[in-house]
UniProtKB/TrEMBL annotation:
<keyword id="KW-0472">Membrane</keyword>
<comment type="pathway">
    <text>Lipid metabolism; sphingolipid metabolism.</text>
</comment>
<comment type="pathway">
    <text>Sphingolipid metabolism.</text>
</comment>
<dbReference type="Pfam" id="PF13506">
    <property type="entry name" value="Glyco_transf_21"/>
</dbReference>
<feature type="transmembrane region" description="Helical">
    <location>
        <begin position="6"/>
        <end position="25"/>
    </location>
</feature>
<dbReference type="GO" id="GO:0008120">
    <property type="term" value="F:ceramide glucosyltransferase activity"/>
</dbReference>
<keyword id="KW-1133">Transmembrane helix</keyword>
<dbReference type="InterPro" id="IPR025993">
    <property type="entry name" value="Ceramide_glucosylTrfase"/>
</dbReference>
<keyword id="KW-0812">Transmembrane</keyword>
<dbReference type="InterPro" id="IPR029044">
    <property type="entry name" value="Nucleotide-diphossugar_trans"/>
</dbReference>
<keyword id="KW-0328">Glycosyltransferase</keyword>
<protein>
    <submittedName>
        <fullName>Ceramide glucosyltransferase</fullName>
        <ecNumber>2.4.1.80</ecNumber>
    </submittedName>
</protein>
<keyword id="KW-0808">Transferase</keyword>
């Protein structure tokens, strides 16, 4: 029994370390210039927008300042009365040289409000290369170049995970630890091993490929458009690839409720769409190997606190080193934020197996294994 517990702890620590090494090898440091691309075709960038966020003015300014010779911006807004429309118009007036359109209306093709908002933009796109980009992505000047450089002969879709940046307060630091050295790390490690999963923050499509296989409506096959995209691309015999350097998402302030509800929502979506990959997530984080190692130490009558400290050091020091090496957010609050994150991980995993409603951008959604319902919340 002692050997079993000790071996389980060692295996989990080793897997954790390998994921950091693989992700560190796969990803370039934040801010590194994009690789050169030979062809620079015109691109349509479709941005679903709703409401004013703390960094809206800056993310809009970035979108109008891309270093790409020919691109158009298509902003999709469900309601013409949304205050973000005026903000977009101000950005358009300040950047008249960038072809831009604002499309309003809501096409109910799915239970996913973001996908519904994107339909009109996808159909209006003038170019064969289309990027679906969330409005809170902080696009670098070489944003399009990064995405294009990720396209290879066997590629069906190029994406980027969000990297949490500019946190304000402790709970925003916790969200950075979820997004960066946890979720981005595992996603890049998986992609390097041939298990690429789409991420809806930034998605580069070759439009004829998707149009020939059901169009954007095909992404309504799952409650999450990135899950549907992953399954569609794999079914066609292609791969989902990630950019070499993921893009920042400025966080600002977050509350405990914000972090919990967002992580619980994502976990439920993963559980419903990829249950076989989601189930082992209970073994992620420091708690499982820590419990196995301490149990083995107690049974063997050795110094359990020292063993526990060694396990935590073997997990957290490489993780913090990864964040420093890639130029991600690492501060004096990072270690306590990681500890809180790893306490939350099993709780989020357990919560994901229950059904329930949540509100996402003004829409009440219910997720279970059989049905995903959507209804407008009365504002």
């Amino acid at each position: 029994m002692i050997i079993t517990f000790a071996a389980a702890a060692a295996i989990l620590v080793l897997i954790n370390l390998l994921s950091i090494i693989i992700a560190g090898w796969r990803m370039e440091p934040s801010g590194k210039p994009a690789p050169l691309v030979r062809q620079r075709p015109p691109v349509s960038i479709v941005v679903p927008a709703r409401g004013i966020e703390p960094f809206t003015a800056e993310t809009l300014a970035r979108a109008f300042s891309l270093d790409w010779p020919d691109y158009e911006l298509i902003f999709c807004v469900a309601s013409p009365r949304d205050p973000v429309v005026a903000e977009i118009r101000r950005a358009m007036a300040a950047n008249p040289g960038v072809p831009t359109r604002i499309l309003t209306g809501d096409d109910r093709i799915s239970a996913n409000p973001k996908l519904n908002n994107c339909v009109k933009g996808w159909k209006a796109a003038r170019h064969d290369w289309v990027i679906l980009a969330d409005s809170n992505v902080l696009m670098p000047k070489d944003y399009v170049t990064h995405l294009m450089a990720g396209w290879h002969r066997n590629t069906g879709l190029v994406c980027s995970t969000p990297i949490g940046a500019r946190p304000q307060g402790f709970w925003a630091e916790v969200e950075c630890m979820f997004l960066n050295t946890q979720q981005a790390r595992w996603q890049y490690a998986g992609e390097a091993l041939g298990f690429g999963f789409a991420q809806g923050k930034s998605m580069l499509w070759f439009k004829p490929l998707l149009d020939d296989n059901g169009g954007i409506e095909a992404l309504a096959a799952e409650i999450a458009e990135d899950a549907a995209a992953t399954k569609l691309v794999n079914r066609l015999g292609y791969k989902v690839h990630l950019v070499s350097c993921p893009f920042d998402q400025p966080l600002g302030s977050r509350t405990r409720h914000d972090v919990w509800s967002r992580q619980a929502r994502w976990a439920r979506l993963r559980r419903v769409t990829f249950p076989l990959f989601f189930t082992p997530e209970i073994l992620l984080g420091a708690l499982p190997p820590l419990l196995f190692a301490v149990t083995a130490a107690l049974l063997a009558d050795v110094n359990a606190p020292a063993v526990g400290a060694a396990v935590l050091a073997a997990i957290y020091l490489p993780e913090l080193a990864l964040g420093l090496a890639k130029g991600w957010r690492v501060s004096l609050l990072s270690l306590p934020a990681i500890l809180v994150r790893d306490v939350m991980l099993p709780l989020v995993w357990i919560r994901s197996w229950g059904n329930g409603a949540f509100v996402w951008r003004g829409n009440a959604m219910t997720i279970d294994t059989k049905v995903c319902e959507l209804e407008e919340v009365v504002q």
